[in-house]
Amino acid sequence: MSEKEAFLKLVETIEKFLQLSRVTGAEKKQEITMDTDIYEDLGIDSLEAMDIVGEIENVFGITVEAQEMLTKKKISDIVTYIMQSNSSN
Fold this sequence. Notes:
Strand content: under 5%
Number of domains: 1
């Protein structure tokens, strides 16, 4: 899997999660880029981050260290983590 493929799959996963968890629809859709901060830009809290960790595990078929993942703020950091996890499997 290339970095671009991992990025696109991660964005799809996060967008799907946000649609399901925030049913209001009133929130403006945020464009997700490699520089997006999941906490500040997307408003994800630590509980939602843990839910996303579970989704990342399912989608990418990797085991994620939750504490390690919570230190990742930018999408680029998460993509790097996924790429490193995939290469060690």
